[in-house]
Each structure stands twice: as structure tokens, then as C-alpha cells.
Amino acid sequence: MPVAPLKPQMKRAALLSLFVIAFCVLDAYSSPRIPVILDTDIGTDIDDAYALALVIASPELDLQGVTTVSGDTQARARLAAKLLWAAGGAFRRVPVYAGEPGKPLPIEQARWAEHFTSPQLKSEKAVDYLRREFNARPGKITLITIGPLTNIGALLKQDPGVAKKIPRIVMMGGSIARGYEPGSGPTPEYNIAADVAASRVVAIAARGRKSPAGVYSPHARH
Length: 222
Ligand SMILES: [Ca+2]
Fold this sequence. Notes:
alpha/beta
């Protein structure tokens, strides 16, 4: 089956995703096997699948779990789980947790994993998993977010004390110096604008931290 070429915006998003994860890898170079949790809205644009594939291919990262966010989170969880299953080995034991379902959105890739099931698909809610993990291993696990911040906002709202137990958040989010198009000004960036209330909770939690949440935006770097 022929693969349709990526739209320019999807290409940019894919490159951004690779950049974000690569930054995390470089930062972790002196400390191999950084434990990470990936929070993703995999399934709409292709960039999140690329990002998960890159995490899988990065021996510097020790993927603890995947949480899904936005729209049909169960379908997104099946996609992530099937990709991890295809990777084989220890990745078949990486747990995947769906977040609260949100407003229905097109998930073009969902058909690939429509009937997929595996023991790594967990029934525990994503926010409960995140709260349990960060409380069990304070200061140890880096959080990578490449979707709207709904799960993270809910986590910090339910348990504000968990913020100091997350050493770093590497986030795809924010438009600081320019927007999506050449010459455009700062634009409400999708992952931030998709859940402004949650983004605000995360930003407030990060304020004043010694190691604040990292926000890496391609628009700020062009
Ligand atoms: Ca995404």
C-alpha cells in the first residue's frame, strides 16, 4: 500500500519531535539509561510515532511507560502498544496507560492497531499511573510530553506535591519568537492551546523551580 507524502506541517512536526527527543538524549549523554515516561497523542500526525520509535532506538533512554492523551485515548494506547510490541524484547513489557478520553479527533493511524491487544495495555488511568510512579521514585524519572498537557495538568492539580518529584519535563510546546509560517509572529501552539487550563497548571508548577520544566520550541530557534 503506497504511503502518502507528509504534509509540510507534518514534516515540521516530525522534525520537531526528533529534535526534542534528541535534545533529551544529548543532555543525558553523561548519564546513560535515563528513566523516562512518554506522554503522547500518537495517532493523528505521524510525528509522535517517529518520536516513540526514536525513544525505542535510543539506548540512553530507559522507557518506563507510555501514557496517552487527547480524544480517543484507548485507540492511541493501542497504537503505542502495538509499536512497542513490534519493537520486541523488553519493549513488550513497557506498560501503556490511556488518559481520560476527550473530544473526538481524527486518528488516521488507528486502523493499524484496531483490534490489537496485549498485556501491556493497562486499565489503570494514566494520571493514577503517573502519580504512583513519580511518588515511588522521586527525582528519578524525566517526563517527555509531546501532546496536550491534559494528563500532566490533572496530575499536578490532584497532587501538587508531585511537582517537586519530577526532575525535568521535556515538552514539545510553546511558540515564543514566531509561529508556524515563515515571517509569522508568536502563535498559540497546538499542544499548549489544546488545553490552556492544563498548560497553565504546568507552567505555574514549573515557575521558580531550580530545574524548571524545559520548553523547547522550534519557532523560538529559527
Ligand atoms: Ca503530538
